[in-house]
C-alpha cells in the first residue's frame, strides 16, 4: 500500500495554536517551528514585541525595515537614525584618534583600473621589459652582503623546534638590532604586521626589559594565541603593550600617545611588499608593497625567478633612496641564507641625527 506524501501527513498533524498567553506584556506571535508563543516582552498596550510588530493589526501605521548593521533584527523606519547611533548593539565602534583614512597612501585610489597580466603582452613588449629589468638591475643594484646574525634569546627555540627557520630569522633580525645598538630599555618598539607578536616577545627578552620599554603591535587581523600578556611580563612594573587593530594605510602615528618622548624602533618580519611601502610612508609621515610578483608563462622557471629577484632589488633600492632623501642612513643586508628564507633581505634605517 503506497504511503501518503510527507507534506500531507504533516499538514494533518498540525493543530491550531492555543489562545494567546495571559502573561502581561508577552508577545502574541505564534512561533510555528517551535510551537509556542514568542517569549520577548512587549511595550505597554502592545500585543507584539518589536520584532513581530509588523503582524500587529492595531499598529499598521509604522513601517519596519531590516537593520543595516545586523539583518537579524528590524527597526521602525522613522527611528532608524536613533537606532543606528545609540541603540544597535551591532553598530561599529567609533574610530580611534589615530585613525586617518588613507593617510599613508601617496596616490588616490583609481575608480577603475584596467588589469593586465604579463602573459597578455606581445613578445616584443615582453622582451623590452626584460631588457629594462636587466639594465636597471645592473645600473642601480649594488652588491648586497650577506650577514647572518644570531642572539642567545632564540637558542632554546632553535634547539626545540623541528624546523627552526622562523627562529633563525628572528635571531638574525634581533642580532642586527643589537649590532645597530637599537635594543634600548627606554625605547618604544613598534612591530608592523605583528600577528601574534612573537618577534616582539623575543625582542623584550633581548632588551631585558622590566617595564621601562613599551611595545606597539600593529595588525589589521585579529589573531589567536597572542603574546601580549607575556610581553607585559610578570614583574611589578609591567611593560606597556598596545595592540592596534587597523590597516597600516589609515594609521597616524603622531596620534599615538605611547610614542611621545620615546626613541622609536620599528621592525617587521611578516609584511608583504605593498604593506612595506605603506609602512615606510607612515614612518616618514611620523604621525604599508606587495611587490606584484610577475608570474607569466613562456620563460623557464629559473629565468622567471631571477627576473622577479631583480625587480624586488630594484624596488628595494627605490626604498633606500626614498628614506635617504628623508634623512635616514640606510643599509640593505641579507640577514639569513636563501636556504632559510627567500625573503631574506632586511632594510635597516636610522635617522642621521641619532
UniProtKB/TrEMBL annotation:
Recorded catalytic activity of this chain's protein: adenosine(4) in tRNA(His) + S-adenosyl-L-methionine = 2'-O-methyladenosine(4) in tRNA(His) + S-adenosyl-L-homocysteine + H(+); cytidine(4) in tRNA(Pro) + S-adenosyl-L-methionine = 2'-O-methylcytidine(4) in tRNA(Pro) + S-adenosyl-L-homocysteine + H(+); cytidine(4) in tRNA(Gly)(GCC) + S-adenosyl-L-methionine = 2'-O-methylcytidine(4) in tRNA(Gly)(GCC) + S-adenosyl-L-homocysteine + H(+)
What keywords tag this UniProt record? Answer: Metal-binding, Methyltransferase, S-adenosyl-L-methionine, Transferase, tRNA processing, Zinc, Zinc-finger
Give EC number(s), comma-separated: 2.1.1.225
Quote the biased-composition stretches of kind Basic and acidic residues, using this chain's numbering. 1-15
Q: Where is the CHHC U11-48K-type domain?
A: 64-91
Q: Which InterPro entries does the record associate with it?
A: Methyltransferase_TRM13, Trm13, TRM13/UPF0224_CHHC_Znf_dom, Znf_CCCH-type_TRM13
- Biological process terms in GO annotation: tRNA methylation
> Under the GO molecular function aspect, what terms does this record hold?
tRNA 2'-O-methyltransferase activity; zinc ion binding
Q: Residues annotated as region Disordered? A: 1-25
Give the Pfam families listed for this entry: TRM13, zf-TRM13_CCCH, zf-U11-48K
Indicate whether Metal-binding appears among the record's keywords: yes
Protein family membership: Belongs to the methyltransferase TRM13 family.
Q: What is the purpose of this protein?
A: tRNA methylase which 2'-O-methylates cytidine(4) in tRNA(Pro) and tRNA(Gly)(GCC), and adenosine(4) in tRNA(His).
Please identify the protein, giving its name as recorded. Answer: tRNA:m(4)X modification enzyme TRM13
Q: What is the lineage of its organism?
A: Eukaryota, Fungi, Fungi incertae sedis, Mucoromycota, Glomeromycotina
Amino acid at each position: 500500500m503506497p504511503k501518503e506524501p510527507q507534506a500531507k501527513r504533516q499538514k494533518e498533524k498540525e493543530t491550531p495554536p492555543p489562545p494567546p498567553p495571559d502573561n502581561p506584556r508577552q508577545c502574541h506571535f505564534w512561533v510555528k517551528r517551535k510551537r509556542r508563543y514568542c517569549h520577548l516582552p512587549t511595550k505597554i498596550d502592545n500585543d507584539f514585541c518589536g520584532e513581530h510588530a509588523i503582524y500587529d493589526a492595531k499598529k499598521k501605521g509604522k513601517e519596519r525595515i531590516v537593520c543595516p548593521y545586523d539583518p537579524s533584527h528590524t527597526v521602525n523606519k522613522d527611528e532608524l537614525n536613533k537606532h543606528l547611533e545609540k541603540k544597535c548593539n551591532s553598530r561599529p565602534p567609533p574610530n580611534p584618534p589615530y585613525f586617518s583614512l588613507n593617510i599613508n597612501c601617496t596616490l588616490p585610489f583609481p575608480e577603475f583600473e584596467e588589469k593586465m597580466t604579463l602573459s597578455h603582452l606581445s613578445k616584443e613588449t615582453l622582451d623590452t621589459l626584460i631588457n629594462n629589468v636587466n639594465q636597471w638591475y645592473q645600473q642601480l643594484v649594488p652588491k648586497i652582503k650577506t650577514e647572518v646574525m644570531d642572539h642567545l634569546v632564540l637558542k632554546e627555540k632553535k634547539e626545540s623546534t623541528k624546523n627552526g627557520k622562523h627562529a633563525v630569522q628572528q635571531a638574525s633580525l634581533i642580532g642586527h638590532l643589537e649590532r645597530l645598538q637599537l635594543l634600548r630599555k627606554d625605547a618604544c618598539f613598534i612591530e608592523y604586521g605583528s600577528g601574534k607578536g612573537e618577534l616582539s616577545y623575543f625582542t623584550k627578552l633581548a632588551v631585558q626589559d622590566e617595564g621601562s620599554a613599551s611595545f606597539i603591535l600593529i595588525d589589521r587581523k585579529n589573531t589567536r594565541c597572542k603574546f601580549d600578556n607575556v610581553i607585559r611580563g610578570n614583574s611589578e612594573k609591567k611593560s606597556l603593550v598596545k595592540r592596534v587593530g587597523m590597516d597600516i594605510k589609515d594609521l597616524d602615528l603622531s596620534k599615538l600617545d605611547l610614542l611621545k618622548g620615546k626613541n622609536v624602533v620599528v621592525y617587521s618580519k611578516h609584511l608583504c611588499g605593498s604593506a612595506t611601502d605603506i609602512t615606510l610612508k607612515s614612518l616618514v609621515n611620523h604621525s604599508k608593497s606587495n611587490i606584484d610578483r610577475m608570474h607569466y608563462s613562456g620563460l623557464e622557471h629559473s629565468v622567471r625567478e631571477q627576473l622577479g629577484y631583480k625587480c624586488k632589488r630594484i624596488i628595494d633600492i627605490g626604498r633606500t633612496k626614498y628614506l635617504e632623501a628623508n634623512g635616514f642612513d640606510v643599509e640593505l643586508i641579507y640577514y639569513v641564507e636563501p636556504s632559510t628564507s627567500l625573503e631574506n633581505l632586511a632594510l635597516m634605517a636610522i635617522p642621521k641625527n641619532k
